[in-house]
Specification:
single chain; alpha+beta; Immunoglobulin-like; Neutral Protease, domain 2; 5 domains; eight-stranded mixed beta sheet; five-stranded mixed beta sheet; 35 strands; about 20% strand; binds (3S)-3,7-diaminoheptanoic acid
Amino acid sequence: PPVIRLEDYRPTDYLIDTVDLDFNLDPNVTKVTALLSLRPNPLGRPNAPLVLDGDELLLNDLRLDGTPLDANAYTASPQGLTLHAPPQRPFELRIETSVNPTANTKLMGLFRSNGIYCTQCEAEGFRRITYFLDRPDVLSVYTTRIEAAVEEAPLLLGNGNRADAGLMPGTGRHFVVWHDPHPKPAYLFAIVGGRLDTVSEVYTTQSGRRVDIAIHVEQGKRERATYALDALARSMRWDERVFGREYDLDVFNVVAVSDFNMGAMENKGLNIFNDKYVLASQDTATDSDYANIEAVIAHEYFHNWTGNRITCRDWFQLCLKEGLTVFRDHEFSADERSRPVKRIADVRTLRAAQFVEDAGPLAHPVRPNRYREINNFYTATVYEKGAEVVRMLKTMLGDDVFRKGMDLYFERFDGTAATIEDFLSCFAEASGRSLDHFSEWYAQAGTPILTASGFYDEVSRTYRLDLRQSTPPTPGQPEKKPLVMPIAMGLVGEGGRDLPLVTDNDVALHDGVLIFDEAATSVTFHNVTEKPVPSLLRGFSAPVRYDIDLSDDELLVLFSADSDPFNQWQAVQTVLIRQLIKGTEAVKTGRSLPPSDRLVRALAEFTAATAEQDAAFAAQVLTLPTESDIAREIGRDVDPDAILSARRAMKRQLSEALLPTLERLHIKLASSDAFSPDASSAGRRALRNAGLDLIAAADPERGEQLAAERYAAADNMTDRMAALATLALIPGAGREDALADFAARFAHDPLIMDKWLALQAMIPEPQTLDRVKGLMQHPIFTLTNPNRARALIGSFAMGNPTQFNRIDGAGFDLLADVVLKLDPLNPQVAARLLTAFRTWRMLEPGRRLKAEAALKRVAAAGNLSPDVTDIAARSLG
Ligand code: B3K
Ligand code: ZN
């Protein structure tokens, strides 16, 4: 596939003002008639040919202003339609195509999921429905008529408001017409047709508009949709309160389907969801499922303003809608739940998904400047790092100026397809500051490393902080510039007291935020009456790796006393990681390193004294860094087996030391209250289950007994899954019995069976490879359903470091085989699975060679999709 470059952007030669679509839904031959009103774009080239995109289309009929076109006036293929000399005035094009929704295994364009017709058009799926200028800067007003058999599809949904509906007597068919008054790009187009169960309510906006909000799910699953409906109403209220943004149509529909390539899609007025992010009940969803549902419902709803009302000029600007919308959904969840715990969870995700990406062959800037396949750029960098960049803006400018900038953005760019420059210009104007240097965050890939050292001078009562930053090279970017980093900080004195921050006048420090924008600097603080412990990057104020010369003792002071809960957690994590890295080294020479006495004491004190007060936070503290966290910190010549041994040993030794406290906590947290999915109840479950996991590490027999009891007695999926996860780590009949019981209980529900598949795929034992191969033959498994593929294969490749990275290369081979098999069916999911190889260069040489061979085998295969070709080539690059 050719390379598309940001610098080559130019406006289209033609515009499409209105689109009238007519769908005649049929499982195998759906006829689509599109009436497009076009005109030359004043910003385009005069007399240019009209080049419409297509993908696997069949053209039945083509007319210009009502008249069939001469055969030599156009060229048509499944991949495009070109009018050689279109009129240089407004004209109408009528295009009739047919598509086969049942045969559509790519799940892009119009497809069927469990008999339900639905669409996915982002990024370039609309061209699989009709020929079109399929790019985000072409905004049109859509009217959509959908016709279908009443029996098959009693519910017919489209974008916008319902304009008409009726029966077609004698045919068994009916139709509905939808009109969307808001001009939009084709990627936001959607229709749905099928038999669905609905939950709905009337939502009244702050200005009094009554909106019918509804969630539609597969038949029989209505009870599992109420939580999502509640989350939707809360999201709508929050966006009014926090951003002043109101909804703008009479209806808002959410449809959940079971075959979906991604989490969900923000189509205007008609969000379509992977049912994993809608369906929840006490017996079927874990607390993290509830939290994810709330977050994804909010995310897609928030796109209505950040993405839909203001869209992207081109796909290079993807982070304009995605980073900003992730930031908004993070803030929403922080307000609805616990802000520090949400921040910790988000930073864990950022490090696990984005830092890894940034450190490997697939690294790219938040705003990439070239791509071959845009679907491969819906990444953690665009989404999560994109959100961090928006967060830094807010931290730097303060809440009020940030809100002013957002208001300006909404006011000025509403109804347009905008760029990152447009976005930043609003904050520059609102603050009166230049953001030119700051904008490098969008252009420069890689995770900066911030190094800090501090010097206290008792005599002058000054504290000097030396800061340095550098960013390692990434593909295509050997040289890196210093970036603008907001460093939220404090100097922590006796008892956790924040000492006043008095600096020289020219130091940019506001509300405890230091702006660091050079390669190196020194900041001197005056009137520092005692030797402080610096607490830097409070709340993780910049997405960087940092290395500070604090002793374990100093870090444990921050753990027990910092006023910033994020840094409390961070401090103890840093100590744990340090000891785990040393432990890994020790394992390689056949030794074992116990955790330091001080660490054990600090954790014991914390667990005994404070854990219960904020259970969700305590659960985060008591969850050790993962094997992947340790591997990332080690960074090269990684031996996953040594990491696993070191982590196991550390977990066992810590747990042994904490055992009496853990047992007491375990009893205290036992709850007899009725189940509620709220954050504080979830926090208590999380802590109790983290405790169970540790008890099992210290005393497997007791752990197995407790977990088996918990599994059998569980009245909710969180406890059931946590118990099963603990059992899964203890080989023997106990675990196999529990796994069999789970399969028998939930055999009828693939979404729940995904948990069972994923859990087994992540067991860190050599037998897991055969287990995974066996599960691929299980009746519940099918490669064509993205959730199944991700649960089994994705969890194995991304969530089982020792077994995916097996020294004999069999883990790599399994993934390569699956990717090659899946690619012809669903290239997007195949390419996504293949990104598991992004860490291959970090491995020790033996494993590295095996990984390279497997990747090369994929790259050398014939007939690969653009998606897989691109990932394979960049991974090897
Ligand atoms: N915008 C969609 C993602 C589309 C992915 C296309 N490959 C969901 C979201 O980010 O909200
Ligand atoms: Zn999004």
